Structure formats: C-alpha cells, structure tokens
Amino acid sequence: MTRIILFTLLGLGLLGSAFARLGETEQQLVKRFGEPKSRNQHKIIAQGKFIELGPQLRFVEGDWNIACEMIDGRCMRITYSKRGDWTEEQVQLVLNGNAQGARWEETTKRGLAKLMREWKRSDGSIAKWGKGTDFKLTWDAYEKAKARAEERARVEASRKPKI
After folding, report:
1. Burial class of residue 65 in the structure, from the number of CB atoms within 10 Å of its CB (0-12 exposed, 13-18 middle, 19+ buried)
2. What is the mean pLDDT of residues 101-121?
C-alpha cells in the first residue's frame, strides 16, 4: 500500500511539471516546454479597435496543448486543452499547479458540474472548465491589465478632433 501511495505521489509530481503556471515568465515556460510551437499576438476588442495585450505562446506537451497569454512579461492567462475526457486527478493537478500559495474554491452552480465547473481564488483569479472544451485559468492581474487597455481606448475614443 505504501508503494502505491509513493508511486502515485511521484507520478503527480512528474505530471505537475508538464503544466504551465500563472505568473511564469517566458523564460520559465521555455525551460519547461522548449520553444513555443507558435507565437501570436493576444488581442482584445475595445472601442471598435483591436488592442494588443502581449504575445500568446502555444506549447505542446504530449497530448496537451497549452496557450499562455503574456502581459508585462508574465503568463496571465492559460488555456489547457487535450483530447478525451478530463479526470478529476487532472483537474486538481492543474488547479494545484496554479495555486501560487492560495487555495481554489469551487463556485460551480448546483447541477452543472458534469457540464461546466468554475473556481475562484482569494486573489480574484478564476478557473473555468467545460465538458468537451478547454480549461482556462485567468490571473486577476489579466483582468486589471485588460481593464487598463479598455480605459485607454475609451479615453482615446473620446478625444475631440482638431477641426
């Protein structure tokens, strides 16, 4: 029995290194996964304009696809996708790998857990999983940076033209 527990913990530790983490730098991500498979610009729409927030790095780790949206040099939002069903062990592994010393509290509405689940951390970060879809984790700093970019776009759009 002790061996089973030991191998399970060892396996979780090895699997845990396969996941990106909120707050990591590009250098840390590249060290973990190698060079990104693709690099694009992460954009939002505000005031009818596309606004670049930073690069989006895509990595592949086995059967997993990992998209990391970077702002100010840090991974602010991560999307994990994979083929097949998610196990509870995989869900917990992703959450624990992105806890950053905090604890995720599940906020899923009753009766929806088989289709959609949500969690929130004490710092305002959120995680959302949907059956047959991706698992997205958003650091609260992402929402703050997005709001700043939207406000800048609003201010720019309200400027009076020189006529």
Report:
1. middle
2. 89
